[in-house]
Structure formats: structure tokens, C-alpha cells
Amino acid sequence: MSYGSNMARARLVCYLAGGRPQGARRRYAGARDRSLPREDRAVHLPGRLWFAGESSVWGGGMAFYDHDAVGPTPARAYRITAAQLADVAAQEMHRSPTPDDPLEAVLLAGIDDRHAAGPGRYETLVAVGHLDGLPMLTFTAPHGHADVPHAAPSAAYVAMIGAGLRESHGWSEAEVAAYLATVLPRDDLPATKPLAGASVPT
Questions:
Q1: Cβ atoms within 10 A of the Cβ of 70, count?
Q2: What 3-state DSSP class applies to 49?
Q3: Where are the alpha helices (DSSP H) in the chain?
Q4: 107: which of 63, 129, 172, 174 lies 20 to 30 Å off by Cα?
Q5: pTM over 0.85, yes/no
Q6: Using an 8 Å Cβ cutoff, are 63 and 55 in contact?
Q7: What single-letter DSSP state applies at residue 53?
Q8: How does pLDDT run across 113-169, given as a tens digit for each residue?
């Protein structure tokens, strides 16, 4: 389940097949299995999007998902394998995909609610339900949107999120702008500071 820049298919494909997303500062190695998603679908998650930290790839804040907050959050469901999801998560945390990644075994065993794969910004796996009998999973920060200061994302990052919303949900520019206005940080929020976590963010 993608709620941020990976809603844009071309951006997600960089995690699977390798490459550098438009506007990003980093090239990705790709997954061990470079097959493209078997299908994808527009969905809404029961939570909210928020931005915090400092991205070394995009500049500005990074998108996170708070499952326990008031939503909904528009998202895009991709049908990929457990191994591919483990490889996407590894690259989100600036690690190389490996065949012995313990997260793959966890995904195959199933996650009922949450699983902390580590202390990093995208190492908390959240189960958000089922779609066509398959588990819907996403990863996010270990804390909620009210626990740390928010930070405005870069224009390139927002543009990629907007592209994903138009692709997956068929939204107009006005609809994208209206939604983003509800989740982008306001001027009266506390100043930006780094999120806790040992790994470098995406």
C-alpha cells in the first residue's frame, strides 16, 4: 500500500527494476525480483498522511502514515510478492536487498496489526486490512503525527505524490490541490527537527 510518492507507478518501478525517479537525488538498485506489479488499485486507508524529518533524496519533509488518526488517506494498492516488499522496505532505509532479509519471513508468516522491523523511519509495518483476500500492508514511522514536529516537503516530492493521485484515483488538479492542502504542514506548526531512528531517511 502506497500513500506517498510511490503512488506514482514510475517511482515504485525504480524500487523494483532500478533507476532514479524524476526529481530525486538517488538511483535505486532495484529488487531481486524485478517483475512489475501484477495489478494495482486505488484505495482509501483509515488514517492520515503527514510530513516530517528531512529527506536526503527529495529535500524537505517525508510522507508518513498514521493509521490511528482520523482519515481517510487516498492510496494505491500494488500486488507484489513478500520478497519484493521486503526489498522495497530495505531500499527505503538505504540498505541493499538481501536474500536473507528477516522481514521477508515475517511477511510470509503474516502481520495482524504492526511489526517493528527496526527503529528507522520506514521500518514499522502496518496491516490495514485485506483486498481480494490478500493482506494490505504499508510501512511508516514508529510514532504518530502528533508526536513530532512536521516539515514541509519539497516541490518535487509533492509533484510526485500529485502524479500518483492523478494516476491511481483519476483526480483533477483541483482535487489534488484540495487534498494536499489538508495534509501539508501549516506555518503555525513547530519547527522541523530530525525524526528518531538510526537509518538515513528516504
A1: 8
A2: strand
A3: 9-17, 82-92, 102-109, 155-169, 173-183
A4: 63
A5: yes
A6: no
A7: S
A8: 999 988 888 999 999 999 999 999 999 999 999 999 999 999 999 999 999 999 999
